[in-house]
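Subject: design request, 43 residues
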């Protein structure tokens, strides 16, 4: 199951990890705990 930064795919995970943002931002906190719920929307 994909979670966190990789929930939107490997490319987005790399992008999120390399973005120069503040890790305390609420956006980042939400992305870190995201879980893929709909496997049809994975692709």
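Subject: RE: design request

Done. Sequence follows.
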């Amino acid at each position: 199951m994909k979670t966190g930064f990789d929930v939107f795919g490997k490319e987005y995970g790399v992008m999120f990890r390399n973005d120069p943002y503040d890790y305390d931002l609420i956006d980042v906190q939400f992305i870190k705990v995201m879980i893929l719920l709909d496997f049809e929307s994975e692709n």
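Helices lie at 10-18, 26-33.
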